[in-house]
Amino acid sequence: MGRIRILPDALASQVAAGEVVDRPASVVKELIENSLDAGAQNIEVVAGRGGISLVRVIDDGSGMNRDDALMCLERHATSKIRSVEDLGGIRTLGFRGEAMPSIASVSRFRLTTREKEAMQGTEVVVDGGKLSSVKDAGEAPGTTVEVRSLFYNMPARRKFLRTETTEFSHLEQQVRLQAIANPEIGFTLVHNERNHFMLPANSHLLERIQGLAGAEIATRLLEIHPDEQSGVRVSGYIGGFGMGRSNRSLQLVFLNGRPVEAAPLNHALREGYHTALMKGQYPVVFLFLEMSPFAVDVNVHPAKKEVRFRDGNGVRYAVAEAVRRTLTRSQTTVPGQAVRPAVPVAIGKPEPTRWQQPALLPEREQVALRRDWAEPAAPRVAAAVPRATSERHFNLPPESSKPSEDPDPAPVQTVTAADFRIIGVLGKLYVLLESAEGLVVMDQHAAHERILFEQMRNRMATDGVPSQRLLVPVTVELSPREFDLVQQNLEALQRLGIGAEPFGANTLKIDSLPTFFKKDDPVGYMSEVIEELKRASRQIASVRLGEDLVATTVCRHAVKANDVLRHPELERLLEDLLACELPYCCPHGRPTLIQMSYGDLEKKFGRQVP
What we know:
The structure is a single chain. By secondary structure, this protein is of the alpha+beta class. The protein has three domains: 9-204, 2-Layer Sandwich (Heat Shock Protein 90); 220-329, 2-Layer Sandwich (Ribosomal Protein S5, domain 2); 341-365 and 412-610, 2-Layer Sandwich (formyl-coa transferase, domain 3). It has 19 helices and 24 strands. It has an eight-stranded mixed sheet with strand order 5-4-3-6-2-1-7-8. A five-stranded mixed sheet has the order 9-10-15-12-13, sandwiched between helices. It is globular, with a radius of gyration of 30 Å.
């Protein structure tokens, strides 16, 4: 006989369970997805010992009759697809028919279900993949799935489970993901007979985020006004300036209601935030994408965590543009409440200052940074504005109204330098300002970096970067893919001040470099530029190319921590900063302005907030 054998059904089910079920959290994920597909309006999740001893998911969905209750425990039995064509346009969260039999094969499993019109329901009990009993039950309409003693019959896999606390944290995260993705549905989580949270149905998305992530985060989020680009509709909320995290725990993206991960989405968020986010930090986003199910493949990962897009560059551009537009529009005051400021009115007589230098010229051609200033005029005081408190309210629409579909609603009142009064300078670095909201602190070095960066970037976009010819041209050997990439972006390289041309097969000749290039390794510099080209999408590469090097350059020319600025210089610095496109962070993502409201001050001094 041959050596190849067909696996027994029980063993095949346990092998499949290794892909679908690896911990209690994955059980909860699969069962909640089934509840959502069944049209449930309320879902309750009960867990014991982190889900290791008990997971129970109760819903009020459509329920099943006896035949369907038995059939759903067969491998690859599903009501959600019928043909190969259906697999190309998945509209449901579950579709493979693997979850229920896989879970039942590695646990003590109990299913009770009843259709809404039926007089009685059905109870099915399975022990380690073996059917134990089938009988009538008097349950409420909907479905209850109870999973006890997960992996009791697979000790090798059970020993890989973590502590109760760790397993529950993963389980809770799954419930939170589904609750945020479906604010119109009520969710309850009970652990060890203690109510962990209870979220009512028909919540506004921002209320749901506040209930799960906290008011401190929710109040600082910026709304993405729904817009469609490249067939992708983007909406949701993103963190404003300075809301970075050391991990992706709050980087949540949902595609057609499904929590997803994909490399193009991570790149898109980085491109959208760009200099508004520090390197090594991840943004806080609650992003919702809607697109044709035929334009995305959700069948590329056993647990359906990752997806593949037909037009990955289009999706990447749509997300990056939505983030960029939202950040640009969100500036009415200091970070947290804003829209892009109009060009402010000049304060006093305009005089040349150190941040007005032609930063793209060689250092020897720059004018002197120091100037003799006349005695400063009396400080300019902003017009009286009603004092604001620290209390913030969500601008929630009425329940009957729909979110605005206008991608560019009318901007609110903008902020100018006249809205601030300069109080003084702390530690020869931090400029203290008074506003109607309270105290504002400006980092003079970070502010000057942002001003110089945008001046240099604007000049790059219009006139290009002045270049200097090399005495001896250098050649760089590239891989075929890198060579093709460079050839497609020769025009962008020229604007950056890099003179490059093909010089044989997969070889590039470099005969000029930008004037601000100060390194002794042109080949290493080109490697950095090529890596930047690889990371950037085609729509953004020509605009963003070289900006990291520009940010490093302006850092050398910006005013330093111990540079003493006189009052007219401080006024001009503030004015020029507020005229920037993104005034609230430096090119490296650090904040330029931070605010402490009157309410915050009153709390710190023990005063009662009015």
